[in-house]
Amino acid sequence: MSRISRCGQFLALVCEMKEIALVAAAIIYFFALTSCETIGFAPPPVTVELARTGARQHVDTATLREGRGLFVSRCIECHALPEIAQHTAPEWPRVIDEMAGRASLKPAERNAVLAYILAARAQ
Protein backbone atom coordinates (compact mmCIF):
# COMPACT_ATOMS: atom_id res chain seq x y z
CA MET A 1 0.00 0.00 0.00
CA SER A 2 1.42 3.35 -0.93
CA ARG A 3 2.07 6.08 1.53
CA ILE A 4 -0.47 8.35 -0.21
CA SER A 5 -3.31 5.84 0.07
CA ARG A 6 -2.50 5.32 3.79
CA CYS A 7 -2.64 9.10 4.30
CA GLY A 8 -5.96 9.20 2.47
CA GLN A 9 -7.35 6.47 4.70
CA PHE A 10 -6.04 8.27 7.77
CA LEU A 11 -7.64 11.55 6.69
CA ALA A 12 -10.94 9.79 5.98
CA LEU A 13 -10.82 8.25 9.45
CA VAL A 14 -10.07 11.63 11.04
CA CYS A 15 -13.00 13.22 9.18
CA GLU A 16 -15.30 10.42 10.32
CA MET A 17 -14.11 10.85 13.91
CA LYS A 18 -14.79 14.59 13.70
CA GLU A 19 -18.33 13.90 12.54
CA ILE A 20 -18.87 11.46 15.40
CA ALA A 21 -17.45 13.97 17.87
CA LEU A 22 -19.73 16.72 16.54
CA VAL A 23 -22.79 14.49 16.81
CA ALA A 24 -21.80 13.46 20.33
CA ALA A 25 -21.26 17.09 21.32
CA ALA A 26 -24.67 18.03 19.89
CA ILE A 27 -26.34 15.21 21.86
CA ILE A 28 -24.60 16.22 25.09
CA TYR A 29 -25.54 19.86 24.52
CA PHE A 30 -29.18 18.91 23.89
CA PHE A 31 -29.39 16.84 27.08
CA ALA A 32 -27.65 19.52 29.09
CA LEU A 33 -30.24 22.07 27.96
CA THR A 34 -33.26 19.84 28.47
CA SER A 35 -32.10 18.44 31.80
CA CYS A 36 -32.17 21.94 33.28
CA GLU A 37 -35.85 22.05 32.53
CA THR A 38 -36.48 18.76 34.29
CA ILE A 39 -34.70 19.80 37.46
CA GLY A 40 -37.61 21.96 38.38
CA PHE A 41 -38.04 25.63 38.83
CA ALA A 42 -36.48 28.20 41.08
CA PRO A 43 -38.91 28.93 43.90
CA PRO A 44 -39.42 32.64 44.45
CA PRO A 45 -37.24 34.21 47.14
CA VAL A 46 -38.74 35.67 50.28
CA THR A 47 -39.02 39.31 49.29
CA VAL A 48 -40.76 42.26 50.90
CA GLU A 49 -43.80 41.59 48.71
CA LEU A 50 -43.89 37.92 49.66
CA ALA A 51 -43.52 38.86 53.32
CA ARG A 52 -46.51 41.22 52.97
CA THR A 53 -48.54 38.38 51.46
CA GLY A 54 -47.47 36.14 54.35
CA ALA A 55 -48.33 38.85 56.88
CA ARG A 56 -51.88 38.94 55.49
CA GLN A 57 -51.94 35.22 56.33
CA HIS A 58 -50.47 35.96 59.78
CA VAL A 59 -47.09 34.42 58.92
CA ASP A 60 -43.82 36.15 59.76
CA THR A 61 -40.84 36.53 57.45
CA ALA A 62 -38.70 34.07 59.43
CA THR A 63 -41.30 31.34 58.96
CA LEU A 64 -41.48 32.06 55.23
CA ARG A 65 -37.69 31.83 54.95
CA GLU A 66 -37.67 28.58 56.90
CA GLY A 67 -40.47 27.22 54.71
CA ARG A 68 -38.64 28.12 51.51
CA GLY A 69 -35.42 26.58 52.79
CA LEU A 70 -37.17 23.36 53.74
CA PHE A 71 -39.09 23.29 50.45
CA VAL A 72 -35.87 23.62 48.47
CA SER A 73 -33.73 21.25 50.54
CA ARG A 74 -36.14 18.49 51.54
CA CYS A 75 -38.38 18.15 48.49
CA ILE A 76 -35.50 17.89 46.06
CA GLU A 77 -34.10 14.90 47.95
CA CYS A 78 -36.72 12.70 46.27
CA HIS A 79 -37.92 14.56 43.17
CA ALA A 80 -37.71 17.76 41.18
CA LEU A 81 -39.28 20.75 42.86
CA PRO A 82 -42.91 21.07 41.84
CA GLU A 83 -43.99 24.40 40.51
CA ILE A 84 -46.08 26.22 43.05
CA ALA A 85 -48.82 26.82 40.48
CA GLN A 86 -48.99 23.06 39.83
CA HIS A 87 -51.57 22.70 42.60
CA THR A 88 -54.35 24.97 43.80
CA ALA A 89 -54.21 26.58 47.22
CA PRO A 90 -56.78 24.08 48.61
CA GLU A 91 -54.77 21.13 47.18
CA TRP A 92 -51.41 22.09 48.73
CA PRO A 93 -52.21 21.07 52.34
CA ARG A 94 -53.02 17.52 51.17
CA VAL A 95 -49.86 17.37 49.02
CA ILE A 96 -47.71 18.63 51.89
CA ASP A 97 -49.34 16.15 54.30
CA GLU A 98 -48.58 13.28 51.90
CA MET A 99 -44.93 14.30 51.60
CA ALA A 100 -44.23 15.49 55.17
CA GLY A 101 -43.61 11.98 56.48
CA ARG A 102 -41.23 11.10 53.65
CA ALA A 103 -39.35 14.35 54.17
CA SER A 104 -39.26 13.83 57.96
CA LEU A 105 -40.89 17.22 58.54
CA LYS A 106 -41.94 18.09 62.05
CA PRO A 107 -45.39 19.72 62.35
CA ALA A 108 -43.90 23.24 62.64
CA GLU A 109 -41.70 22.60 59.58
CA ARG A 110 -44.68 21.28 57.62
CA ASN A 111 -46.60 24.43 58.52
CA ALA A 112 -43.68 26.64 57.44
CA VAL A 113 -43.44 24.92 54.05
CA LEU A 114 -47.18 25.26 53.55
CA ALA A 115 -47.14 28.92 54.60
CA TYR A 116 -44.33 29.67 52.14
CA ILE A 117 -46.04 27.85 49.26
CA LEU A 118 -49.39 29.53 49.90
CA ALA A 119 -47.79 32.98 50.18
CA ALA A 120 -45.78 32.43 46.98
CA ARG A 121 -48.89 31.10 45.22
CA ALA A 122 -50.94 34.14 46.30
CA GLN A 123 -48.52 36.53 44.61
Task: Give the SSE map.
Elements: H1 3-39, H2 48-56, H3 61-75, H4 92-100, H5 107-122
Output the keywords.
5 helices; 123 residues
Number of helices, where a helix is a run of at least 4 consecutive DSSP H or I residues? 5
Mean pLDDT: 83
Gap from first CA to last CA: 75 Å
> Structural class from helices and strands?
mainly alpha
Describe the global form: rod-shaped
Range of strand content: under 5%
- DSSP, total strands: 0
Q: Please give the largest β-sheet.
A: none
Unreliable spans are 33-39
Helix content: 55-70%
**How many structural units, i.e. domains?**
2
Rg, alpha carbons: 25 Å
Overview of the structural elements:
- The chain is mostly helical.
- It folds into two domains: 1-39; 48-122, no CATH class.
- It has helices spanning 3-39, 48-56, 61-75, 92-100, 107-122.
- Helix 3 (61-75) crosses helix 5 and helix 4 runs antiparallel to helix 5.
- The chain starts with a helix and ends with a helix.
- Mean pLDDT is 83; it is low at 33-39.
